[in-house]
Every structure is written in C-alpha cells, then in structure tokens.
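Internal tracking record. Fields below are filled automatically when a chain is submitted to the structure queue. Please do not edit lines marked as system-generated. If the sequence contains nonstandard residues, flag them in the REMARKS field before resubmitting.
Queue: standard
Priority: normal
Entity type: single polypeptide chain
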Amino acid sequence: MRLTRLETFANEFVCFVKATAEDGAVGWGQTSTYNADITATVFHRQIAPWALGQPCGDIAALVERIERAEHKYPGSYRNRALAGLDTALWDMAGRRAGLPVAALIGGSAGPVRAYASSMRRDITPEDEAERLKRICGEQGFTAAKFRIGAEMGRDRDQWPGRTEAIIPVVTAALKGIDTLVDANSGFLVERAIDVGRMLQDHGVGHYEEPVPWWDLEATQAVSDALEIDVTGGEQDVDLQTWRRMIGMRAVDVIQPDVMYLGGLTKTLTVARWAAEAGLPCTPHAANLGLVTPCTMHLLRGLPNAGKYLEFSIEGADYYPWQQGLFLGDPFAVTDGHLQVTEAPGWGVEVNPDWLAQASCRSSALGDDSASDYARLYGAVMEQGL
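SYSTEM-GENERATED OUTPUT FOLLOWS
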C-alpha cells in the first residue's frame, strides 16, 4: 500500500505525525521534541515529498530512500523530522497486524524495568536525595539517576562543590537502589576521571556523557581509566559515527535516542551493531512524549537491551508542554515497571483535545506540497532512489 497523506500537528515543543495509506490505514508518530514547529516545516519540505506515493510496508527502504534524496542534509533536523515518519509507519504496521511494535521486532508485550530519572540541577543535594528516596519508595523504582556537573560546563559545576556534595548524599539516601548519574558533557578528561573514581567509591554504576559528547577519544580515555560503565550516544545522528564509537569501544553502554536518531529503524541498526560488539543498549528517553513508549517497545525487542528504561520523574512544573498529550495513562508505574500492552502499534492514542489546539499542516499525494527540488528532479532521480 502506498502512502497518500502525511499530516503534522505541532506547537513549539511537540509535533505529531499522522500517516495515511491508500487503503485508509493510519499510523501515528512523533518528531523529536523542542523547536518542533521548525521540524514540522522540515518534514513537509524534505521528508513528505519523497515518502508520498511510496510503499509503506518496507520502512527501512523508505528511510534509505529519503536519506539518499536528502544527502546534503545529514544532520539533526532531518533526522528529527524523519523520526516522525518512521514512528508513524511502525505504528501503522502494528495496527495492520493487530500487534504491538515490540512483537514486530522479535519481542513481546510485558513489563519494562525503569529508573527514576531526575532532570534537575537547580536542587540541593539534600532535597534531591529526599525527593528520589520518596519517589522510589512510592513507585517501587529500584534505580534512579541524578545530575552532576553543569551542562557543557568545561569543569564548571552548577555551583561550586555541588558534584562532590551530591554524590555521597544521594547514594547514602538510596541504599539498595541502583544509582546512575548524568554529567551532560560537563567535564574535561582529568576532572571526569577524578569524578568517576568518586562515583565508583560510592557504588554508582552508570556515568553518562562525562566529557563533550562529540569527542570520542576523550570519552574513550575516561572509559579506559574507570571501572564504572561510561555511557553515551544520545546526541549522535550519523551512522558512521556510531560505527566508530562502537568499534573503538568509546563507551561501555550505548544510548541512542529513537527520536534524535531518526526513528526505530535506524536505532535497531545501531543496537544490532552494539550487540555484535557485546555492548548493551540503554536508550535515552528523557521526556514523556512518544519517545518513552517507543523506547519501551524497543527494549522489549532487543537481545542486548540494557538494565532499564529511562523514565522522567519531572511533572508539569518542569515540563508543562508534555501534559495532556495522550488519552489515559500510558505511563503508569507499578513496582518500578512500565507495561508494554497487547494494544497494536505503540499502544497509545494521541489526545484529540491536544490536536485541536495544534498547528496543522497536510501533504498529500497529487497536491502541490512537494518541494521544487522533488518536483523538478524527482522523476530523473527515481531510478536510483
């Protein structure tokens, strides 16, 4: 079946994609969050023209077609937009088959262990310790992550001494709970190693993005110096960078983001490479948009799935834009686990009230929505694409 219509529903933070095939089958996806209104424009300009009229059953072939057509735009926005198409087509495939996406990739419905993921640095060590202890107790989480350093800080802390203070305070409060930290590229190599040794001494098991994420050699130097798992990859969107990262074992655990990377199809490729190298995959999923359901299904289907799902504990005060996106409660936590249900596709339904308030745009087969480039040169390039 061919794709006949692609619609976006966007605001500044979120862009949902609705894909419709010629037989009326529908799938829902999402581009990556933030500047999502810009991503929606990229979607209609550079993704939709190459997808409309194409068979929607072979998602990998369609993703490759678009990437070849838009080879001059290999970066973040193209991949963020491509994720909207990819995730919508996986949802459509699941709905056609009457199966959850997890079942389409070799897995099944079932529970997914989660860790309580704090996004905050504007919080004292004592308040963060109390908050995480309370949330883990109330919801049964057996793992939790907190933030150290300052984002892209070049050894500057959020405030002087915070990193050295928060590590012992939080780990002492979370006895019996696996602890993780995220440095968000906050350190240079020497300090990153010093902090890593302190983390090891306090039993922390996961050290995320210790140094600038693009510097694989620096990341490898930190990883080689420490016993703790050094993790990373959430920002990386280029498959050749992933090949190099995995080949040189710059990290101990890979962390692709389904939405940043361009969708489930490319994430499965990266996860397979990691599996072949003996590396686990613990994806990045830092908000309660569609990235979290997608990651739940991914983890249910990977042979090298990591220990847990990232699950943001931040509510409306921190992420007001993620409120009211879906019907029901797809993020219910029971004993520290979320559930991939037997519902087809991603198993979630976008809230019609949210859609009614979004900015809507449609590209359809046969209309004048295709870009000038696609219209003028599409016929010529079709033989090779």
